[in-house]
Hints:
Blueprint: E1 2-10, H1 16-25, E2 34-40, E3 44-52, E4 75-80
Antiparallel strand pairs: 1-3, 1-4, 2-3
Amino acid sequence: MSVALMWEARAVDGRGPELLAWARAQTLAPAPSRRETFQAPQDRVLVITWWDAAYDADLPELADPPGELVSRSPHRWRFQSLGEG
Length: 85
């Protein structure tokens, strides 16, 4: 089974590059089978990690970034893969 963890945060205005650098520098142990980082308008950063694990498995997640970088707490979601198609 495959599960994807999504982590999304919005930076304080103008601090998007710092939030992006912070997110990219975070390591997860063990490492996911795949990890992608995205950015969007309004200084948003999204990180998706993929794991070969059960939906309810205990998996490492990105922590909360330093409070001075974000305008709100990060949002987190967990999704189960249903396969292609």
